[in-house]
Design goal:
about 190 residues, alpha/beta, Restriction endonuclease-like alpha-beta roll fold, six-stranded mixed beta sheet, five-stranded mixed beta sheet, 4 helices, globular
Length: about 190
């Protein structure tokens, strides 16, 4: 019998002063059995960075045809495709053909750097692709905030990003590995 996903609830308060977005989101996150707290929290961070009423979690880790997060317009066309980790280069190119904006949030330190070194000649010239790296110490600190029922505050002001619960706060540093050429309001 297959192991089922673990359900996490997150009450996420977003104060994105750079984008003038202030909203509370009650999120239900299904954590795949193979997913770590670290990866789940990076998905949650990606949600906060791109939050809007149409953004939703996809089945990315268990379905290659879906991202970790996506925003579809009213016609079903994919506006934004967001993946976490180090996805297959062919899948990234396919996503860039299907969506207006594609964002990858990599983490894992040297592994993420080695991935980019291997794929940059193929992905580096794609206009609608943005790739951001999260330092391993940051992603591990975010993982410590993971609880089955979370109350989190996300703050973005003048490029500084904070993710916090009632007891701890993590300053999130994003390194732009590749910025999209078709700049979008969600580019950091």
């Amino acid at each position: 019998m297959a192991i089922k996903s673990t359900i996490f609830k997150a009450a996420l308060q977003i104060a994105n002063m750079d984008q003038h977005y202030y909203q509370d989101h009650a999120l239900t996150i299904a954590r795949h059995p193979s997913e770590t707290d670290e990866r789940m929290m990076v998905r949650l961070l990606a949600f906060a960075l791109h939050a809007n009423d149409a953004l939703s979690f996809g089945n990315g880790i268990s379905n290659d045809d879906e991202p970790d997060l996506w925003h579809k317009d009213l016609t079903g066309a994919i506006e934004t495709w967001i993946d976490v980790g180090i996805p297959d280069e062919k899948m990234v190119r396919k996503a860039c053909g299907r969506a207006n904006h594609v964002y990858i949030y990599s983490y894992g330190g040297r592994t993420a750097d080695m991935w980019w070194d291997q794929v940059k000649s193929k992905l580096g010239k794609i206009d609608n692709l943005g790739i951001y790296n999260i330092p391993v110490e940051t992603s591990r600190a975010m993982a410590k905030l993971a609880e089955r029922n979370m109350q989190l505050n996300f703050t973005l002001q003048e490029g500084q990003i904070w993710l916090a619960n009632a007891n701890d706060a993590v300053e999130v540093t994003l390194t732009a590995v590749k910025t999209p050429l078709n700049l979008h309001t969600a580019d950091y």
